Structure formats: C-alpha cells, structure tokens
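Dear support,

Our group has been running a series of protein-ligand predictions, and this particular one with nicotinamide-adenine-dinucleotide is the one our PI (initials K.S.) wants archived with full inputs and outputs. We had some confusion internally about which version of the output was final, so please treat the block below as the authoritative record. The input we submitted was:
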Amino acid sequence: MTTTTTTHGSSGLPVLEHYVGGAASAGTSTRTGPVYDPALGEQTKSVRLASAGDVDAAVAVAKAAFAGPRGWGSSSTAKRQQVMFAFRELVNARKDELAAILTSEHGKVLSDAAGEVARGLEVVEFACGMPHLTKGSYSENVSTDVDVYSLKQALGVVGVISPFNFPAMVPMWFFPIAIATGNTVVLKPSEKDPSVANWMAELLTEAGLPDGVFNVVHGDKEAVDALLVHPDVAAISFVGSTPIARYVYETGTSHGKRVQALGGAKNHMLVLPDADLDLVADAAVNAGFGSAGERCMAVSVVLAIDSIADEVVARVRDRMGKLVTGDGRGSADMGPLITAAHRDKVAGYLDVATTDGADLVVDGREVVPDGAADGFWLGPTLLDKVPTTSTVYTDEIFGPVLSVVRVASYDEGLALINGSPYGNGTAIFTNDGGAARRFQREVEVGMVGINVPIPVPVAYHSFGGWKASLFGDAKAYGTHGVDFFTREKAVTSRWPDPSHGGINLGFPQNE
Ligand code: NAD
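Confirmed final output from the archive:
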C-alpha cells in the first residue's frame, strides 16, 4: 500500500504524491514539505505541495466524476451503500496497519491511533445507513390532485481540509457522508502527517469507488486558497485552528460556497466539591495528556473549587508520576509532539506561566523519554494557580500542559467558561444532579460532558462547538453532515387529469 504513491526525490527520501483519478499524481509543482517521525525526530519522507494548477486539475477530475448520467452524482443509492460497506470492512480488517502509519507520522501511541480509527469508522457505519437518511418526504394530495415531495441531492465537488491531530478521523467525519450522498471529494490533508490520506484513498478504490470520486491533493496555504476560490467547488469542510477557520469561512463564503469551519478550543473541566476526586483525577490526566494534549477536545483547564483544589492537584500529580512518555510503538502512555517547533512553542509557555505567577507543579521539560534522543519530547506538565490574565490561560496551547485555576464557586467557574472566546467542549464533575442539570443548561459550549471528560458525540449525533470553535451553521457528521452535503429540492406535481383548472393569474392556493 502507498507504493504507487511515492517516488524518490533528490534527497533520497520518498516523496508522497497526490492521489487523483484513482492513481498517484505528481502534479506540476516542484515544492515539497518535510514529513517527520516525531518519536525519532527524523525526516522520513517529503510530501508534494500542490500549486493552484494542481488543485485545478484535481477539481476537474472530481467534477467529471460527478457529472452525467453515469457520474457519481447519478449513481444509485445501492451502489453508494455497497462501496461504504466494503470500505468499512477493508478498514476494519486492516486498522492496525492504518494505526501504525498514523503513529509513525503523528506520534500518538498505537492504542490511541487505534481509537482514532475506531471513531472514524463510526461515521463510515453511519454513512452505510444513508438511504434511510436521504429518503426525503412525500405529501399526497396537498391540493386536489397535487402532490408535494422533497428530495435531497448532492452538491457536486466538495473540498475537505483537515488538521494534523486526527489525520484519519477528521477526514472520516466528512468524506463518508459526502460520498454516500453522491458528492465527489478533494481532500487536502495536513502536510505534517499526510500518508494516511493516500492509504484511505487507495482503500476506497479497492472498495469499488469509481476513479475521481475521492481525490487527495497535498499542500499548504496555496492549495487551500485554490480550493476556497475555485468556482467548481461547491462546499468546504475545514477543521483547524481558529484564525485559519475564520479565514476559510470568510473566504469560502464570499466565493459563494457552503462552508463549515471547525476551529480551536480551550476546554474547561469544572470540579465541584462533591465530585468523586479519584474519578476527577483520572479524567483530568486522561483528557489532559492523551495524544500529548494535541486534541481539540483535550481538557486544558481544571476549574477547582477552593475547598478541594489542593486535593485535586495532589491526586493529579500522583497519577502523572506514573506516566511514561516515549515512542508510541512501545509501551509509552504518551508520545511526542508533532514537530520540534511545536514542542518548543508549547515549552515556551512554561516560562510564561512562572513569570505570570503560576506554580509549576510538574515540569514536562524534565522528562526522561522512553525513546530516541532526538524525538520531539515534552512530558506532562501541571500548572497550579494559573492567573486568568496569563496567555497560558487564554491561548490554545495544544500540548501536554494542564492548568489548574482555583475558583470560589460554581458561578465563578461558569463565568470563566462562558467568558472564553471558544466553546468547543467542557465537562462538569459532580454528584449533584441538580448542579449538573443547571450546568448543561447555562454553559455556552457546544459539547458538554457530565462526569465525562471528552464528550465527543457518537456518529448519529453531530460534532461541533460554539463561538470561535465553529464558523458556519452545520456541525460535522450526524444529520448536520447529511444536510451539509445535500441540498433539498421540493417538487410540486400534478399529473394530467381529464379536468383542468382554467386560467387563474392569482397566487396558487390549495383547494
Ligand atoms: P492549522 O489551522 O494549522 O491547519 C489546518 C489546515 O489548514 C491544514 O490542512 C493546513 O495545511 C491548513 N493551513 C495552515 N495554515 C494555513 C493558512 N495560512 N491558510 C490556509 N490554510 C492553512 O491546524 P493544525 O495545527 O493542523 O491543527 C490543530 C488545530 O486544529 C487546533 O487549533 C485544534 O483545536 C484544531 N482542531 C479543531 C477540531 C474541532 O473539531 N474543532 C478538531 C481537530 C483539531
């Protein structure tokens, strides 16, 4: 797998090519970007970075694959469903292979990579039931001999632009639904861990998807910009940081596209005094340091009521002492960060924290990793008494840094969460059902956990935040996803009848 998609560049390293029309394609651009194995700290390959012309060529292929009576846009529901079922079986049978590729380029530990694949597969399974979700509705005899029915039809060519932190799952939030509803797709994955995209594309081909229905174009801003302004791209699904999400939303919509742009996050976990503090400590560690904190649903702030804050900090610190940071292919709990530059950026916040008056309880820079010396390591870090004026509190750090902010009351905690510009995920830990119920009603966040730290909705609900965590009206997957990738058409029909209504220039009324 992927042997057909690589050629050898001048460095001697393989170059990962685009996948267009069912085959590897080098395109015309000579630009490439480095791809690392973060646990080794070594470049393992390069990835082609598309020119606008390369994007144009891929969109043309996707457009041709959509069009005409034999195009994917006119394919039968049964055919689409068969491909989705076959793809699901193939990924399921080879998920370990996919997880290994993912770990080698992202760095997350293998069990976490397998979890990512499993959550992506949920959406494929959801898409297998697309006939039920797109069957429309029919009203008979709304007026004498007149029927009205609504249809959901595909948009055409859609673009998916994904981030580095979930190279399999995030594209799977979108393309199964886009394809199962009859669209053709151009995926622009993150250039930091791009191989998973080609692997999935090849498997879709193996599953029977016609050439050109799913295409992968690798690249950076140049490729993204080309998709955003392309007249033949009907819609864009984007996931990434908030500034880029805002830019993508504004640029795409101003070019007439339907856009959903999911952005960054700063997720708070509010701990009330009656909570089970062992459950709290486990949850804070799992949600703070899983995937080295490089999750948009990671908990990065624990809001602890003063009376229990010392105990929360102590229990979290104890658990952190048992965590092994190292190569995800071994027995480590937590892997490296994605690049050296990102590791250094995250580590830089630890100096900011102490300057701003926080207590550095556990310093991840002192970690002794179970892995290669040059890996992009930063161990789990715990900060206490973080001032809410510090950039450590206000910025999305996107690394293994957990901040404890002490609050006097539920109301103070809630006000902090609702004051954040982000609104992706949040959680409350309590044994008081009334408090939890009040929280779910009052908190201004799109995904809420009650004694659950990472409340990622299942595939038949929809995923998305509020405020600066989502630009656009539609969340990812679930019925939002189906609506996003289809447009509804309402048909009012009357078949000839021996009688006729005669001339009437008034506005149609139902009789
Ligand atoms: P990113 O914004 O740097 O990149 C995302 C995508 O945008 C990539 O494909 C990248 O190539 C492209 N891109 C980067 N710079 C660009 C530019 N200037 N113009 C146009 N396109 C550009 O994000 P990342 O670092 O890959 O991923 C981490 C971010 O994604 C975090 O902020 C995280 O919270 C967010 N994220 C959000 C969700 C969510 O569901 N809300 C899920 C996963 C990740």
